[in-house]
Specification:
2 domains, three-stranded parallel sheet, 21% helix, single chain, Ribosomal Protein L15, Chain: K, domain 2
Amino acid sequence: MKLNEITDNPGARQSRKRVGRGIGSGLGKTGGRGGKGQKGRSGVAINGFEGGQMPIHRRMPKRGFNNIFRKEYVAVGLNRLQQYVDSGKLDAKGTITADTLKAAGVIKSARDGVRILNNGEIKVALNLEVAGASRTAVEAIEKAGGSIKILVVKGEAEAS
């Protein structure tokens, strides 16, 4: 094989279609866009359009509402905390906050705060400072000899 003999496989490279270049090309006049009408023109955006009939997204009834003030908490179970303490990624001696949980890889982001849930059991005494916790989780942490401090999240101080 010589360098001047190297070629692509047949059909590997296709030349682009040059549309609208006369009737002899086979892609002249309308340029592959068919006849007239809305879709034959540029700038067509008719997603969800049903030909003048009331679209289904407008026929369906509306339900509920989205509370723009809702807080998005990250839920962390006690079993997950125990797992990270056992593996040595989380230090049980210091105070555990959302930042230490993020640094240890327990959570990806703190969002509006961390909420501790009673999933599984905890064997070590932990000192936690979090945005919230379930009643049973607080009992389990205190039973293990730890303490938990619930922080006031931004926006909640004005409400109460």
